[in-house]
Specification:
The complex is a heterodimer of chains A (112) and B (305).
Chain A: H1 3-10, E1 22-25, E2 30-34, E3 39-43, E4 48-52, H2 54-65, H3 69-80, H4 84-100, E5 105-108
Antiparallel strand pairs in A: 1-5, 2-3, 3-4
Helix pairs in contact in A: 1-4, 2-3, 3-4
Chain B: E1 2-5, E2 23-28, H1 31-37, E3 44-50, E4 56-63, E5 67-72, E6 76-80, E7 86-91, H2 96-114, E8 118-120, E9 123-127, E10 130-135, H3 142-151, E11 155-158, E12 162-166, E13 171-174, E14 179-183, H4 184-189, H5 192-198, E15 200-204, E16 208-212, E17 220-229, E18 238-241, H6 245-249, H7 260-276, E19 278-283, H8 290-304
Parallel strand pairs in B: 1-2, 2-7, 10-17, 17-19
Antiparallel strand pairs in B: 3-4, 4-5, 5-6, 6-7, 8-12, 9-10, 9-11, 12-13, 13-17, 14-16, 15-16, 18-19
The chains are: A alpha+beta (112), B alpha+beta (305).
Chain lengths: 112, 305
């Protein structure tokens, strides 16, 4: 099963939300801290540490502070100087990957 | 962490005069009374230490109602209550300094962890107003470096277990018990004058000699951490910055008591150390003595702290 399929199954709606309607939240059992060369994400329920490279670390910081994935992608596109379409897809894949590992919760509503 | 109790000590001070009034109460009991107190309903084995032949000589068990029981064949039985406020001690057959070494080297660090303190597996000195910590495996010579630094004018902070806490800008290091357990080979390398100036000899076991040393009082910002590797193929000493967060995280003294908040604190503390202190690998040839290596580290530390 692909990561996208897994995410769809978790979402409350049977429609796939657009990035603008997709919000990401870091669960209470997850903490992360930045280091010089990577960000370490800790799942307090499992005791497992996960490493993110600097790009992933920045993505997580921005996702945490923005209300939806689309806004996060827009900020990151400006920061990294890459096309919005490109970073939007990368960010969605990143969020799905973290969600599969229990490090991020994705919430969507109908695009409307 | 202040401790209080009503019994004679050689290896540490019993003084509960902490500004916040918080301290650990140590109580000596007989083995029979201890066994009456340790009646766990659902104990969990949390750790063991074994001899080469597989015989257990230290065990750590946990019961949610009663706390941690540490047992050492010769040093006795110790029960840390779930709050970390009280420790029952039923000393074994070792002489006073022997069981008290177990108490300060194993029981009190776990007690500190139960009370929410973070401990590094490190020896440390205070140098020019900053703590310099030495880490590495059991043969790396952490204590030898700390004692040689002490002989070269630094102030002793801790041997083997270093308590730390977050500060405004730096992580702060706390002085531990004024005890250094120095390996016999290192003691032999010291001149008589150095041995005398190191401190009062309390006793010895097959591995090491225990000295009561002069200790720095008060907390000090953590300036540098050196991970010692004595297997360098090079003839000179080399320093390399460490960027791997997991090495910092795994430098904890405490692998036994890790509630979720404790894991989060450890990650936070590691991040603070990485941001505010110099963290280095030190690669030295095996034949280099602790005195020469400590002088090299002192020179290096002078450039960063």
């Amino acid at each position: 099963m692909s990561s996208t399929d897994s995410r769809r199954r978790e979402l409350p709606s049977d429609t796939i939300p657009t990035p603008a309607a997709l919000s990401a939240r870091i669960p209470q059992h997850v903490v992360f801290r930045g280091f010089a060369t990577e960000t370490v994400v800790l799942n307090l329920e499992t005791g497992k540490y996960h490493g993110l490279n600097p790009t992933g670390g920045r993505m997580l910081e921005v996702v945490e502070k923005t209300p939806n994935v689309e806004e996060a992608a827009t900020k990151l596109a400006a920061q990294f100087g890459v096309p919005l379409d490109e970073i939007r897809q990368d960010l969605l894949t990143f969020c799905e990957d973290l969600a599969e590992r229990g490090l991020l919760e994705l919430h969507g509503s109908s695009a409307g | 962490m202040a401790v209080a109790g009503e019994f004679k000590t050689q290896a540490f001070d019993l003084s509960a005069e902490q500004s916040d009034g918080s301290h650990v109460e140590l109580e000596i009991v007989s083995a029979r009374d201890f066994d009456r107190a340790w009646t766990p309903s659902d104990p969990i084995r949390k750790g063991t230490a074994e001899l080469d032949d597989g015989t257990e000589f230290i065990t750590i068990d946990f019961d949610a109602e009663l706390g941690y029981r540490m047992w050492c064949e010769q040093a006795g039985r110790y029960l840390i209550d779930p709050s970390g406020d009280r420790v029952l001690c039923a000393p074994g057959r070792l002489p006073m300094w022997g069981w008290q070494r177990f108490l300060i080297g194993q029981v009190l660090p776990l007690t500190a962890a139960v009370r929410g303190h973070e401990m590094l597996h490190a020896s440390a000195v205070s140098l020019d107003g900053r703590a310099v910590a030495f880490l590495g495996d059991s043969e790396a010579g952490k204590t030898s470096l700390a004692t040689n630094m002490l002989l070269q004018g630094a102030e002793f902070l801790a041997d083997d277990a270093l308590a730390i806490e977050p500060g405004d800008e730096y992580v702060r290091a706390h002085p531990g018990p004024p005890i250094a357990a120095v390996r016999h080979a290192e003691v032999q390398r010291l001149s008589r004058a150095s041995r005398q100036s190191l401190g009062v000899r309390l006793g010895s076991n097959p591995k090491e000699v225990l000295f009561r040393v002069a200790r720095y009082s008060g907390t000090v910002p953590l300036g540098a951490m050196y991970f010692i590797d004595r297997r360098s193929p090079h003839r000179d000493v080399r320093f390399e910055p460490i960027t791997d967060p997991l090495l910092l995280i795994s430098s904890t003294f405490n692998f036994v008591h890790r509630p979720p908040q404790g894991l989060a604190n450890l990650l936070d503390m590691s991040s603070r150390i990485a941001a505010s202190a110099g963290v280095f690998h030190v690669m030295s040839p095996a034949e280099m003595g602790a005195a020469a290596l400590s002088a090299e580290i002192r020179r290096h530390a002078g450039t960063i702290v």
